[in-house]
Amino acid sequence: MTTQDSSQPEVNFVTKTQVGSESSGPNFSVQELKPGGKENSRSVSEHEIVLIGASLEKKISLPSPTKVDLTCKLDDSSRLKDPQVTWKKGSETISHTSKTQNSWTIQVTVSDSSQLGSYTCILKAEEEISATFHLQVPKLEGKEKPVITYERDKAVMVCKTEYNPKAWTWYLANGTELVPIDRILRTDKFQIKRPSPSVNRLEILKLTKQDGGVYLCEATFELGNSQIKFELKVLSIWAPLMPFIAIVAEVAILFTAIVLYEVYSKRKGKVSQKTLLRHSSSSRQRSKSGSLKGDLTNRSGNYRKAMMYHKEDVCSYGF
Amino acid sequence: MPAPTQAGRAPGPPDGGWGWVVVFGAFISIGFAYAFPKGLAIFFKEIQNFFGTSYSEIAWISSIMLATTYGAGPISSILVNRYGSRPVVMFGGLLCGVGMISAAFCTSILQLYICVGFITGFGLALNLQPSVIIIGKYFLKRRPIANGLAMAGSPVMLCTLAPLNQFLFDNFGWRGSFLILGAILLNCCVAGALFRPIGAGTALAKTPVNEEGKDALKGKITEDGPMEKKTEEEEGKDCFEKVNQYLDFSLFKHRGFLIYLIGNVLMFLGFFAPIVFLAPYAKHTGIDEYSAAFLLSILAVVDMVARPATGIVANSRWVRPRIQYFFSFAIAFNGACHLLCPLASSYTGLLVYSSFFGLAFGMVCAMLFETLMDLVGAARFTSAVGLVTIAECCTILLGPPIGGILIDTFGDYKYMFIKCGAVMVLAGTFLFIMNYYNYRMLAKEEKERKKKEEHLKSVRTENEGKKNWNKDSTQDGPELEPLRENGEGVKKEMNGTNEV
């Protein structure tokens, strides 16, 4: 009656959550778990929460009917001693077994969606702490932020999950109404592809502004459906073009400014050259001898170095 | 050997003035060249979904871009030798812009490889090399500081581009973002416009009138360059042609260059992998995504500060003559950080590691090109940097995949860190020992040259001048030789504190 789906991935592990500090308030550490904790011969997955001083939660994804063992364990270092233990689902109490001292287990047979939900073990002694297991259908992965596309381009929305659902459906949100896209039989506009059993793609071609809106991806598992929303925004080509033109204008302006400044300073240099030439005709001889040390700036040390430096530049050696 | 009679016109590298503007331009240019490929990673998931490809096909975009940026180094060098830095950078900026703009209209992953990978990658290569080269032309005394400041562009740009890319992506999707990024890359042209030509290769035959006038002026470099080339150019034309046509392959006989090449090629095997895997490693140890991203931010911030600081330290009196030792130390320090990383298991431990890693990374990057300039001199640096980058290209591309293989095989990140640490410590030690040997050989050659000069001086007449244009040595090591004058101490000259 309850068989584990053989096509499920065999990634199984038990993770023990331990609370680092014993804070006064509830300290929730929530983890997503794949099903199948520890595999034993009867294909029952086991999940365990180890409590020290505060309450914990754990999410467990179940794609298909299975049996799960949920265990609450009290760590030896905890202050609570010999607590009174109750397992509850909502308001309903479930009977449990105690495999070892300080650990209490229930076995849940999940055959349809009514058995999904939150199962809590409550330990009451000097204080009350609890551990909650959330059994749910696997979540879908999409894109939380809006998908931005452009007119006449194509939009791609990729919906992923970790398991293989039985079926995928895409919906278009028209106001409050959800229209399945399969019914809109326009293969030139909508294309649904399934590159792998756990991934589904919706491609919308030849976009127009009206195509923007909310789309829904739904995956059907044996135990129920899981949904995720995508928001599509269709922009016109002018949207990025405005900043683009602004930046190109800025580049052009800066470039022109730099070139103009250079031309201006060149001209200034030439003017002052001419004036100096008129005055320095007598010093022409002096300049030729190369003893310019005094004429140039006070960086004569650099000057000598520089001369040698330029000797290198002329590459007159080493070849 | 031609002895220019008009030597002494050249005012030399200004070490300031317009040079700082050039540093700013290089800051922008280098920043884009290094940070842009990293910043693109944000778009990859969406592009992967859009084209329905696997992750490795998308990762090729990054690899092609990186390979082209480093592999096109020699082409960049040849172009700079021929045309000077400025036109090359402007053309590079234009290419980048065109590449990204056309990428916005791509309809297949292959087109993306070409537009983003090749065209933009080539444009970035044309940005990177000339920017580094022109710093060597504008600075000598304060070159390490200038290098440190310019290289600081990389972390600053990365810190700016990462949130900017995210913002663009959220508002415009990947196509619109590529369009706008193309426009932003055009700013490299603006940076290029700031690179006024200076120094050898740009001098044209000027009339004696101009020369006279310039001599009388203060030793300021205008865009016309130094004037003494007039006679020298005619005599030195053959070698100029050589330089302009080919890449300077004689560098492979240069001892210092070979040491640098081998040491660096080894170092790059373990240089980038830790950054690539830092965030995944953090997540693997149980840290959440935002804190893992914060580690990288810490790294970038420390890096940002470390680069100019290293430049200042490297410029000081004590370090500059021994800058090669400082560089080897920085590499070994980097390696030591990685070796100690597996010991850090908590979040605070990783924070400490990130800070030290940022410091070490900044130190190495700031001195990466400075040490090469120091070894081969500014003239041959153009070709040297091209040859070095194409050699590094292979190991840079191999580093992260090898790290990835180690992680996948052993299922543990620590072997990757140990590998990177060991490789870098090895590289640092190698460079240290070989540079010690190199310094000794250079000192020996110095002594021999001094002896020769004194001998020649006693033979030569006074008229031929005080300038010793003795260019016998083919091992034209660091600026030790050119900076020497009148028997002054080699080291004193090198660190440029010989200020009057």
From TrEMBL, chain A:
Signal peptide: none annotated. Gene3D superfamilies: Immunoglobulins (2.60.40.10). Residues 35-44 have a biased composition (Basic and acidic residues). Residues 26-132, 138-236 form the Ig-like domain. Residues 278-292 have a biased composition (Low complexity). Residues 1-44, 275-299 are annotated as: Disordered. InterPro entries: Ig-like_dom, Ig-like_dom_sf, Ig-like_fold, Ig_I-set, Ig_sub. Keywords: Membrane, Transmembrane, Transmembrane helix. The chain crosses the membrane at residues 237-264. CDD domains: Ig (cd00096). Residues 1-30 have a biased composition (Polar residues). This is Embigin. It comes from Ficedula albicollis. The gene is EMB.
TrEMBL record, chain B:
Residues 19-439 form the Major facilitator superfamily (MFS) profile domain. InterPro entries: MCT (IPR004743), MFS (IPR011701), MFS_dom (IPR020846), MFS_trans_sf (IPR036259), Proton-linked_MCT (IPR050327). It catalyses: 4-methyl-2-oxopentanoate(out) + H(+)(out) = 4-methyl-2-oxopentanoate(in) + H(+)(in); 3-methyl-2-oxobutanoate(out) + H(+)(out) = 3-methyl-2-oxobutanoate(in) + H(+)(in). It is found in: Basolateral cell membrane. This is Major facilitator superfamily (MFS) profile domain-containing protein. Belongs to the major facilitator superfamily. Monocarboxylate porter (TC 2.A.1.13) family. GO terms for molecular function: monocarboxylic acid transmembrane transporter activity; symporter activity. GO terms for cellular component: basolateral plasma membrane. It comes from the Eukaryota. Keywords: Cell membrane, Membrane, Symport, Transmembrane, Transmembrane helix, Transport. Residues 448-500 are annotated as: Disordered. The chain crosses the membrane at residues 18-37, 58-79, 91-124, 145-164, 176-195, 257-278, 290-313, 325-345, 351-369, 381-403, 415-437. Coiled coil: none annotated. It is a multi-pass membrane protein. SUPFAM superfamilies: MFS general substrate transporter. Residues 448-474, 481-494 have a biased composition (Basic and acidic residues). The gene is LOC101808279.
